[in-house]
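Re: weekly structure request thread

Next one in the queue (162 aa):
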Amino acid sequence: MVRKRFRDPRTGVLLSKSFDADKYLRKIGLGKEDHHFWKQVGKALLCTYALFGAAWLFNETSPLGWWSLKPKPKEEKELAHLYERRKFPYPGDEEAMNDFIAKGGMIGTTIGPKGLIENDRDAYNFQKELQDKKFEQEALKMWLRMKNEVIAELQEKGFDFE
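Done, posted below.
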């Protein structure tokens, strides 16, 4: 009968050579036979991110100013025909520059309906104004509905209202 000997302890380089990483990677689905699958997954992710990136970039820097992926409120769409695009003169053209300054020039930040100049209206204030208008309309509707209900109840009880 042959006696069993203890194995020499492996340290350093010998330990790293004995470690079979592929065996453990195969158990979690990352072995050599899975390379094709993960390559396809990587390609799909790359294409997806490329498409989303292109859509985002196009939305931010759209050459078609009238077509972007950002929705516009109904009121803004209805009022769009009232707004005019202001044409700025070429800086070297003195006569056009004088006419531009005489018409109002660069006064104000926003050009309102029919080319009127408004100082305190930006996109946020415009949106807030529209929300306030909607809120007031809803409050008025609710008030009228409640008033009509009270009148109807009082008429049922016999009181006469005109």
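The longest strand covers residues 110-111. The helical segments are 13-18, 21-27, 35-60, 74-79, 94-102, 123-157.
Next request, please.
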